[in-house]
Amino acid sequence: MNSSNGLLDRIGLFSQTRWPWLLIAILSAGLVLIAHNVFQVWLYMKPCEQCVYIRFAFLCMTFGCLFTLAWPKALICRLIAYVCGVYGAIYGIMCSVKLSDIHHAIHSDDLDALFGMQGCSLEPHYPFGLPLEKWAPDWFLPTGDCGYDNSDVPMGTVLSPLQESIIQMYSDAGGWYLIPSMKFMSMAQCCLLGFIVALAIYAILFVGDMKHVAGSKKAA
């Protein structure tokens, strides 16, 4: 019991430094940058409705970290980070599950899998009524169909050998996969795993943080 309490106290102390929040911010913002600059711009994969929602979810996590990066020892700032982070992770899980279901239905040999499946819209509706698709359309306006993550290269585009080989690899696999040759882990499944891991990290940090805060109050 003492060893577990000691571990929670160390986690609580760690949560009051900038390091965990900097790591979360870099990973969350980095994934959004990769999705836009690499897959959308460089590989011509158009983002779907659920894709841009997933971007929003990662940015919610990033936004919360800004407060703790500025004032890591302020409890209110850490609470804001927890709320934004948990909200972003849960919202991302919901969008990833929906995208995964659509992807499975579209690529399934069972035609009944498509029955009752709700597709994607090109008019997104973000939480809190945020018009992100108007503020940054290149980042948050969906232009693709859910479940179809193949490259749509404009006519006349001259591709580099590296671009061509990567696009061909995903084309042969029928879409984006972590391991294309095995069709292992679709983009939606990778995002789902990432959000689940993020939610677990937030939970561990929060428990350790609250344990340390409670212990500090008792000591005082």
From TrEMBL:
GO terms for biological process: protein folding. Signal peptide: none annotated. It is a multi-pass membrane protein. PANTHER family: DISULFIDE BOND FORMATION PROTEIN B (PTHR36570), PROTEIN-DISULFIDE OXIDOREDUCTASE DSBI (PTHR36570:SF1). Required for disulfide bond formation in some proteins. Part of a redox system composed of DsbI and DsbL that mediates formation of an essential disulfide bond in AssT. It is found in: Cell inner membrane. Gene3D superfamilies: DsbB-like. Keywords: Cell inner membrane, Cell membrane, Disulfide bond, Electron transport, Membrane, Oxidoreductase, Redox-active center, Transmembrane, Transmembrane helix, Transport. The keyword Transcription regulation does not apply. GO terms for cellular component: plasma membrane. It comes from Sutterella seckii. GO terms for molecular function: protein-disulfide reductase activity. Belongs to the DsbB family. DsbI subfamily. SUPFAM superfamilies: DsbB-like. The chain crosses the membrane at residues 21-40, 52-72, 79-99, 186-208. Interacts with DsbL. InterPro entries: DiS_bond_form_DsbB/BdbC, DsbB, DsbB-like_sf. This is Putative protein-disulfide oxidoreductase DsbI. It holds the Pfam family DsbB. The keyword Transmembrane applies.
